[in-house]
């Protein structure tokens, strides 16, 4: 059972709990795909987690790059997050960017963090409390990061794995992107795949913006468990790889990590054969 995924009903039951912090992790470019009536509202008392500009390394040439420990601490404290906070993250697209934020907190050593299954659309469909978005300042929190590098992979790690083959890279982009039959969304980025990687599109773990049933996920991941290798999830820019990572929590016993730069970095740095 995946304890990191929280239902709308489950969140509604703890809405008034002390130490609860709800984070809206919606990427604004994705928000534009949502109906107008969703764009200006949030779950009651939610705080905006600016993944693109405040919780990414803006000195990195690649998008939504992993932030430094000090940057993450500073921005988390500015949101009023404490070391004892219970954190629930969501986005307006059902499931898209929120697992990335869940993974970031896990990589910074914070375990008490959950993803709202179905995100804002599911919350609204249940008639649970929302409010108009407003800019707010919060009392500074005391959040401290304790890095967990085991679940993060960098370029050198994945490049060296071409030789050692100790880990299996699971690319979660669409089959067409993996097979290089369509152009990459990023301008000028070549198509293709990391050598020796396999493809399981992240959309396979979702159904109408929510995670598939545990039974379906167990069936989907059966072949990976049989590989009996540590898994490295990769995608376009490190966002949807985290969707697959979260979906496998509580199901796969394999050690797991996310390749932060994913294809955007790999396709730029490694030329085609």
From TrEMBL:
Tell me the first and last residues of the signal peptide: none
Protein name, entry field: Thiosulfate sulfurtransferase, rhodanese
Upper taxonomic classification of the species? Answer: Bacteria, Pseudomonadati, Bacteroidota, Flavobacteriia, Flavobacteriales
Documented EC number(s): 2.8.1.1
Alphabetically, the GO molecular function entries are: thiosulfate-cyanide sulfurtransferase activity
InterPro entries in alphabetical order: Rhodanese-like_dom, Rhodanese-like_dom_sf, TST/MPST-like
Q: Which residues form the Rhodanese domain?
A: 16-132, 163-271
- Name the UniProt key words of this record, in alphabetical order: Repeat, Transferase
Name the PROSITE patterns for this protein.
RHODANESE_3
């Amino acid at each position: 059972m995946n304890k990191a995924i929280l239902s709308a009903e489950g969140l509604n039951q703890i809405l008034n709990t002390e130490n609860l912090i709800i984070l809206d992790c919606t990427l604004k470019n994705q928000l534009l795909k949502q109906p107008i009536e969703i764009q200006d509202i949030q779950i009651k008392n939610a705080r905006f987690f600016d993944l693109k500009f405040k919780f990414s390394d803006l000195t990195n040439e690649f998008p939504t790059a992993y932030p430094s420990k000090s940057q993450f601490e500073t921005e988390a404290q500015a949101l009023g997050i404490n070391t004892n906070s219970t954190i629930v993250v969501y986005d307006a697209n059902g499931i898209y960017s929120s697992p990335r934020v869940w993974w970031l907190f896990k990589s910074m050593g914070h375990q008490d963090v959950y993803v709202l299954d179905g995100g804002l659309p599911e919350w609204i469909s249940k008639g649970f409390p929302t409010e108009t978005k407003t800019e707010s300042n919060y009392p500074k929190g005391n959040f401290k990061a304790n890095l967990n590098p085991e679940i993060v992979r960098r370029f050198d790690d994945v490049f060296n794995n071409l030789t050692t083959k100790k880990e299996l890279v699971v690319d979660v982009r669409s089959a067409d992107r993996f097979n290089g039959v369509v152009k990459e969304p990023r301008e000028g980025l070549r198509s293709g795949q990391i050598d020796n990687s396999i493809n399981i599109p992240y959309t396979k773990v979702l159904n109408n913006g929510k995670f598939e049933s545990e039974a379906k996920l167990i069936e989907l991941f059966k072949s990976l468990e049989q590989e009996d290798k540590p898994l490295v999830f990769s995608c376009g820019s490190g966002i949807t790889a985290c969707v697959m990572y979260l979906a496998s929590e509580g199901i796969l016993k394999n050690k797991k990590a996310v390749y932060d730069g994913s294809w955007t970095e790999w396709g730029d740095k490694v030329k085609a054969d």
